[in-house]
Amino acid sequence: MKKYYYCYCPWRFDFLHNKKNIHYICKGVNERKDTTFFLFEFTPEVKQALDEYSYLYPASDVI
Question: Domain spans of the chain?
Fold first, then answer.
């Protein structure tokens, strides 16, 4: 299982951090694209929240 989850989506970040109260490790900037990301430890809690997010918003922020 992966150890970290890099979150580039502001809506997904809002869901994880503000609605699920999951704390991130750090905030950074991708220098190539000048986009902000948040780094989470990939725990079972994060996995469950991401699964729930995908269920609630199935077509959101698909790239």
Answer: 4-56
